[in-house]
Amino acid sequence: MNVFISFFFLICLIFAHKISQTLRFFITIILLLLTNCQVLTVRAEFRESKKYNYPGKSVAGLYSRAKTLVKRKEYAKSLELYNAVALKYTDALNPDDKLKCAKAFCHSGDIYYENREYSSAMSQYLGGLRIAEWNAFNLVSGQIYTGIGNLYSSHGDFEMGIRYYKQALTLAAKEHNKHVENKILNNLIGASCFAGKATKGRKYLGMLLKNKENNSEYTFNARMCCGIVALGLKDTLQAISCYSQALAYAKAHKLGDAHTTSANSCLAQIFVDMGKPDAAIPYLCENEKIANLTGQDDLLAETMRSLSFVYEMKGNRDKASAYKSKYVDMFDSLYNNKEFNTLKNTMFLYEANKSENAIRSLKKEKQDRDEMIAMQRRWIITLVLAFFVFIVMLAVVYRQKKQLFTAYRELYSRNQQYLNDRHDSEAERRQTKDQRLTKDQRTEILDKVEKVMLDAGEICDSNFNIDRLALLVGSNSRYVSEAINEEYGKNFRTYLNEYRIKEAMRRLADTAHYGSFTIKAISESVGYKSQANFISVFTKVTGMKPSIYQKISKE
Q1: What is the pTM of this model?
Q2: Among positive and negative, which fits the CA dihedral 511, 515, 520, 522?
C-alpha cells in the first residue's frame, strides 16, 4: 500500500510547480515518512534473513563459494550465500572484505534482474551502492550504476538508463578497466539510439572501437553496436549487414543462444519496419524455438508480440490472434509496471536521501570552515596584540638599557678619574691620636710602599702579601700595616685590591695587548685566583661588571 501512496505523491511532486509551497512541503514530508517505512521493511527482511548469516564463516570463504555456485548455475543457493556475505558488512571489516560485501550486493542484484525481480534487484543495487560509494570502490559503483541503468532501459526509460550509464562510465574510466568500460559503452550505444540520439550513439561507438579487446565477445558486441548506430542514422542496408555479420559470427564461434536471439530480434525488427514480414518470420521462429527450449519467458513473450504483428501484416488474422493471446497472458506476469514504479520510487528516495546527506555534509563543512575562520581571526588578533605588547616592551627595555648605558659611561668616567688618582696626596692623609710611628717614619715607609705598589709585576703576583711588601720596603709587616691603616683608613687587603683593580681596568681598556683576553684571563693576570672573587671586587670598586667596562672601553 505504501508503494501506491508513494507513487501518487511522487507524481504530485513532479508537478509541484503548479501547487503551493505549503503543499509541496507536506508532500515531501509524507515521502520521507514513506521512505522510513520502506527502510524499516527492508531491515525487517534482513533480520528475517539472518538465519543465512552463516556464523563463523569468513566473508572471503562465503564469497568464493557463491561464485562457484554461479558457474554451476545454482542461482538460488548462490543468492543465499551472496546475501550472507552482504549481511556480514560492518565498519570494522578490512578493505578487501568490505569490497567483497559490495560485490555481493551487486551480484545479488544481477541475479534478481535476470529473474525479472526488479524491485529486489534495485534494493540489492542500492545496498551495494551505499558501501561502494562510502569506501570509494569506483569499479563496483560503476557496475552497480550499470545494473540500475539496465533496470530503467529494460522498462523503456532510456533517458534514465543513459543517465546512470554515464555515471558508470565515469567511475570505470577512473579505474582504467577496459572490459567494464566496453560493457557500459555497449549499453550507452543502445540506449542512446533507442532514445533517438543516434549521433550520441555514434560518439560512444567510436570510443568502443578505440577501446579494442582481443576476444569474441567484444567482436560480436562491436558488430551489433555498429548495426544499432547505422539503424539510428537511417542506414538500413548497413544495419542489416552489421546484424547479419554479428549473427554469423555468433553461430560460427558458438557464443550461445543469447547472442543468436539478440541478432535475430534486431534483423526481424528491421524487416518488419521495411514492410517485409516474410523476411522477418524465420528469425522470429528461431527465437521462439530457442525460448521454448531454454525457458526464456521474456524472450518468448517479446517474440509472441512480434509474430502477432507480423501475421497481422500478412493478413493472417487467426495466427495473429493466437500469438497475441499468448503474449497478453505472459505480459502481466513479466512486465509488472507497478513493480517498475516501485523501483523508480525507491531510486528517487535513495537519491533524495543522498542529496539530503550531501547538503547536510556541505552545511557541516561550511560551519567548520566558519569556525576555523573565526578561530584564525582570534589568533591573528591575539598575535597582533602580542606583537604590539612586544614592541612596547622592546621600546621600554631599549630605553632602560640606554639609560643604564649612560649611567655606566658616567661611572666609567669617574673610574678613569679614580684610576689616575694617587694615594700620596698630602691632603688625603690624616693623623690619628694614637701613633706608634713617627710622622717621618710613616712617610718614609709609605713612600717605599707606593713605589712597590706601582710595580705591576709585584702586586699582580697571586702570592703577593703584606709580608712580601714589608720585605720589599725594608720594614716589618706590623709597621707597614699600621702605616697603611693610619694614612688611608683601610687594611692591606682592601689597599691591594684597589691597585689590582686599577691595573685590571688598564688591561681591559688596552685592546692592543689584552683585547683577546677573557675576563678570567684578566683576573688571573692581576693576581686573582678566583674569577668570581675578581668580578665581585671589581664591581664593588667600579660600580660595574668587568664585561661592561671592557665593552665601553672598546667604543
Answers
A1: 0.51
A2: negative
